[in-house]
Amino acid sequence: MKIAVYGASGYQGKLVLAELARRNIDMLLVGRNAIRLREAATIVGIVDAEQRVADTDDHDALVAAFRECDALINCAGPFTSSGHAVIRAAIAAGCHYVDTSGEQLYTKTVFDTFADEAERAGVTVIPATNDGCVPGDLVAHLLAERVQPIEEITVSHFIVGGGYSRGSLRSAVGTIDAIKAGGLSYDDGDWSTGTPARHASVTLPDAPQPTEVVKLPLSEVVTIPRHVPVRHVESLVDAALSAQLNAPLTPQIIDSLPEGPTEEDRRAQRFTYLIDAVGRDGQSARGVVRGHDTYGITTVIAVEAARRLVADGAKPGVLAPAQAYDPTNFLAFLAPHGISWTITVSDTPTAQQ
Ligand SMILES: NC(=O)c1ccc[n+]([C@@H]2O[C@H](COP(=O)([O-])OP(=O)(O)OC[C@H]3O[C@@H](n4cnc5c(N)ncnc54)[C@H](OP(=O)(O)O)[C@@H]3O)[C@@H](O)[C@H]2O)c1
Questions:
Q1: pLDDT of residue 240
Q2: Residue 195 and which of 28, 91, 183, 210 are 20 to 30 A apart at CA?
Q3: Domain total in the chain
Q4: What is the CATH number of the domain that holds 220?
Q5: Which of 121-130, 178-187, 246-255, 322-331 bottoms out in mean pLDDT, i.e. has the lowest?
Q6: Transmembrane region positions (predicted)?
Q7: Is 104 a pocket residue for ligand 1 (Cβ < 6 Å)?
Q8: Is the pLDDT of residue 38 over 50?
Q9: Closest ligand 1 atom, CA of 77?
Q10: Is residue 87 located within the same domain as residue 125?
């Protein structure tokens, strides 16, 4: 099995290279700049790893590189500007595709643009294989096995500490209008912007008081309705985190920052992702995903997501995580990496890992 990494020279890309090396998976580093690719290989300690230079405006070079591989992990953000060119080339090369994007509108355009093309080519494309979308999407599928029919699903992210990579900040700045507007909501079969949030606060497990939340564009809103029959899906984040992402940042300020959080920062970070489902009969269920180190977990998830597409196969097309992977099995794989999850139906715990 050989896996290509596009955007291999970035902060997330280098973490992915190190994880592929740790797992003894053959890899090909691909990016637009030969010097930065070589530097990345040196930093990760894989100087002999194969490298190919291919810019996103050189379709033939991208296809030639990806044709050598079984799957591709795209870490080159912002994805809104360059992601489509990479996916188009992966499909032409017959190479399965996952990416680390957190850009919600981009995720939606991947489904809208490439579903038929990927299916015809026999290629599986899964955007947003990151720390939030994969566990959130898989847990939502498990909730739907317990509560039916579902009126609404609310996904809420709470992250303490850690900080952001320059690439994440560039993605945030590049999609700032969507962030300010709260992103997409899903209602009765379609996605739209501008719908006010149904919830202004969420109570974390064991918290004495509710926490103020605001709408924030998360890719789970795009993926969950692909496999869960539900009337309304929205995504929220605690208001303090939203204020951080809304802080005015220029490209110059971002360039002056460190590439990304230190290992110590990553170890100290904690996240809690809540997936709340309310049935039309009033029954409710809550999934709680906890972990630390969003970049480290994204790395583990993206590599395993790509590996499983090659080793186990999935149907061709653009898929949500739960359409490609067995939810319980994939979540169990994440447990040794510090991810814990619980599902509680109407206050009665029914499953836990
Ligand atoms: N939960 C989440 O939402 C989540 C979690 C983790 C990561 N992410 C996303 O992952 C992405 C990567 O983050 P990062 O910290 O690794 O960023 P980074 O350090 O800035 O690296 C970006 C990489 O993409 C390449 N690149 C950027 N624009 C390109 C273009 N137009 N054409 C070709 N290559 C291009 C860069 O190549 P050069 O070296 O040549 O500049 C570099 O290799 C971000 O979008 C981030 O938001 C999201």
A1: 87
A2: 210
A3: 2
A4: 3.30.360
A5: 246-255
A6: none
A7: no
A8: yes
A9: 45
A10: yes
Q: Are residues 140 and 285 in the same domain?
A: yes
* Residues 267, 317 within the same domain: no
Query: Which pair of structure tokens corresponds to residue 35?
Result: 């010097």
Joined tokens for residue 264: 């110590």
Alpha helices (H) along the chain: 11-22, 34-44, 59-67, 79-93, 104-121, 133-144, 166-174, 176-181, 220-223, 239-245, 251-255, 263-268, 294-311, 321-324, 327-334
- Whether residue 160 sits in one domain with residue 79: no
Taking residue 71's Cβ as centre, other Cβ atoms within 10 Å add up to 25
What are the backbone dihedrals phi and psi of residue 200, each rounded to the nearest 5 degrees, phi first?
Answer: -105, -10
Are 162 and 293 in contact, with CB atoms under 8 Å apart? yes
- Are residues 288 and 224 part of one domain? yes
Q: For residues 82 and 181, state if they share a domain.
A: no
Would you say residue 266 has pLDDT above 60? Answer: yes
Closest atom of ligand 1 to CA, residue 99? 10
**Torsion angle, CA of 256/218/126/310, rounded to 10 degrees?**
80
> Is the CB of 294 within 6 Å of ligand 1?
yes
- Structural tokens at position 278: 């309310």
Look at residue 244 in the predicted model and tell me its pLDDT: 80
CATH of the domain at 118: 3.40.50.720
127 lines ligand 1 (CB under 6 A): no
Chain centroid offset of residue 187 CA: 22
Residues 141 and 218 in one domain: yes
**Domain span holding position 160:** 133-294+330-352
CA distances from 228 to 60, 188, 212, 344 (A): 38, 12, 27, 18
